[in-house]
What does this fold into?
Amino acid sequence: MDKCSQSVKPAIGIDLGTTYSCVAVFQNGRTEVIANIYGNRITPSVVAFSNQVKSDGKIHAERLIGEGAAIQRKLDPNNTIYNAKRFIGRKWTDPTVQDSISGYPFKIEENDNKVQFSVDFNNETCKFSPEEISGTLLAQLKKAAEDYLEETVT
It folds into this structure.
């Protein structure tokens, strides 16, 4: 069998956006943007950390990504991170960082001259870098591709 007639595995591409993100697959000579679990082809670039007290008094902690996090943003803006991409690779002393940090309801702190976000999650203060928040979004988009393709994406 020559190289031209061999079956080619599908390729995926992820657009990690500041506000919205999406994932697409190229297969059989065409590109298709993959819908997320809500049926939408774009996913809000938002990650929320929810702490709900249940009727038994125990805290149910949950990490929400995309649409669920966008809804949670209205309910608990202090524990919902958005626009994380704007901070990737920036130093704490960067004027762009300093000019924008007061405009967010969640805590943005300095750690070794880098930006980090601080949220309350599961009775703890958790700190995340912009790269970690973006990585959470990328993992969710990768999972959407895997669910669509019914195979592992590497």
Q: What stands out?
A: Strands lie at 11-15, 20-27, 30-33, 43-44, 46-53, 59-65, 80-82, 107-111, 114-121, 124-128. The chain is about 25% helix and 35% strand. Residues 130-149 form the longest helix (20 residues). The chain has a mean pLDDT of 92.
